[in-house]
Amino acid sequence: MSATTLDTHVPLDTLYHNHHGWLCQWLRGKLDCPQQAADLAQDTFVRILVRAEPVANQAPRALLRTIARGLVIDHWRRSALERAYLEALAQLPEAHQPSAEQHHETLQTLEHIAAMLEGLKPRVRTAFLLYRLGGLTHGAIAEQLGVSSRTVERHVATAMLHCYRLRFDDR
Amino acid sequence: MIGDTPAPAANTPLSDSVVRAAIHWQLRLETANDSQLVRRQILAWCRRAPENALAWQQLGTLQQELSASLDALGQPELALPVLQRAGTDLQRRRTLKLLAATLMLAGPAGYTVHQHSPWRSDFTTGTGERRTLELADGSRVMLNTNSALDVAFDTDWRQLTLHQGEVMVDTLGATSDPRPLRLSCDFGHCQTRGSRFVVRQHEHYAQVVVEQGRLQLLGMSGRGQEAGAGESWRLDQHGVSRTGNGALEPAAWTRGMLVVDDIRLAEFAAELARYRHGYLGVDQQVANLRLSGVFQLDDPDALLADLPLVLPIEIRSRTRWWTNLTARG
Fold first, then answer.
1. What CATH class has B252-327?
2. In this complex, which of B66, B69, B279 lies closest to A134 when CB atoms are compared?
3. Helix (H, G, I), strand (E, B), or coil: what is residue B36?
4. Confidence band, pLDDT 50/70/90 cuts, at residue A168
5. Which residues of B touch A89 (CB under 8 A)?
6. Which residue among B13, B27, B90 places its CB closest to the CB of A169?
7. With an 8 Å Cβ cutoff, are A138 and B59 in contact?
8. Are the Cβ atoms of A114 and B70 closer than 8 angstroms?
9. B322-327 and B279-282: which strand pairing?
10. For the domain B79-243, what is the CATH code?
11. B260 pLDDT above the threshold of 60
12. Nearest by CB to A157, which of B27, B69, B88?
């Protein structure tokens, strides 16, 4: 109403007290596991805590929701990746199974690369992966995807540009 | 003051055209027969402008970091399908949530409740997945592997947009709906009141096959054509044209089958590759072998394993994700 209410900030403990239950509820609607929802609710408040800006009194739930949504998407991404990785590992012979430490590191690297390629069209992503990771020639990729070599080259270049922007345009 | 002096180049984002040029050079270098020559050309290009040199240097850094990451992965044939799948799974997961929200919004009365707030939903399928949808008007839609479709019904139109892949649309059960149904893709539109048809989007064109009823086809130029049952049409940047039947029966996938008549092995493998994860290559030596038959799509790997029974080929799999068809040796 008055200028004073606009300027006020919510202390974290008040925020937690007033909205933690609601946030858990909201997250439970997104995730199947209540334990997971509670963890992400906790993470959301940790993000608020480490944020430089204090939380304004207006619409604190919108902010909580925005942060929590980002965490949910990260969570999906990570679990989808982990599931796919475990399935792929199950195909490998015993002798090729990585150690626990290797396993963890590989998963982290996969996450890093997956995050980098997030937002690329599936075709672009596939062409890029086959080229950089699979080591196939443009011609071989073209044959597999049923497109021309020039299209493959364009896809690879698009993915490179995307990675470049992520890496160098950050503020 | 800010604005009076140009900021140091390193803090200003380089233009897309400079970065793209640098990427182009990098790809040239990687595929060149005479790398010394390309290196000299790159050097000359870098000397032409400081932005060029910066782009080249940054790209080199990126390349090194990327290589380090990729090397850390070790087994590429393991990481490749994981990375490809993770993206699709996430997309599908989001779609499911979106779908749930849409269903809640639409409620039992379907679109009539929301005549004034057109709603929209996205449907996708992953590799090897097929999915049937019942739309609010009673139309039936089937998505083939790796496809993406938008549905947006409003008071005047039943609008479908195919972004990727292949779809079968059957509006024969929804002919009482007064609104025309329009399916748009990258190369044009199909419009109908009652028909069953299949649209497949390729890289440079779309193929439309009418199974039943009639369809109006509109190219990007706005030129229209009337298509009848049993006909096959092509939409591309030049417009709308009639085509013959290929070696592949276009709507067989809607019944879970792959039906081919005198198809080249290379073409067959490319078709099969749409339905399975991983790389499927064909050696030049056997690429022109021909094949006819009716195959079940549900287990593409089993289908693949049966090929040596009918063709003089051998299947070489380094891993489950890396398969090559070669001459039997």
1. alpha beta
2. B279
3. helix
4. confident
5. 78
6. B13
7. no
8. no
9. parallel
10. 2.60.120.1440
11. yes
12. B27
- Cβ A160–B26 below 8 Å, yes or no? yes
Q: Which two tokens stand for residue A133?
A: 């990771």
* pTM score, whole prediction: 0.48
**A-B contacts (CB, under 8 Å):** 141
Task: Give the tokens for residue A51.
Answer: 């944020």
Q: Report ipTM for this prediction.
A: 0.70
Q: How far does A27 lie from chain B, in Å, by closest CA?
A: 13
* Domains, chain A, with CATH or none: 1-97 (no CATH), 119-171 (1.10.10)
Residue range B31-90, pLDDT digits in tens: 888 888 999 999 999 999 999 999 999 999 888 888 888 877 776 667 777 787 666 555
Give the per-residue SS3 of B164-222: ECEEEEECHHHCCCCCCEEEEECCEEEEECCEEEEEEECCCEEEEEEEEECEEEEECCC
Please report the beta strands in chain A, taking only residues with DSSP state E, as ranges in sequence order: 9-10, 55-56
Sheet architecture: strand order including B279-282: B279-282, B322-327, B313-319
The span from the CA of B46 to the CA of B54, in Å, is: 8
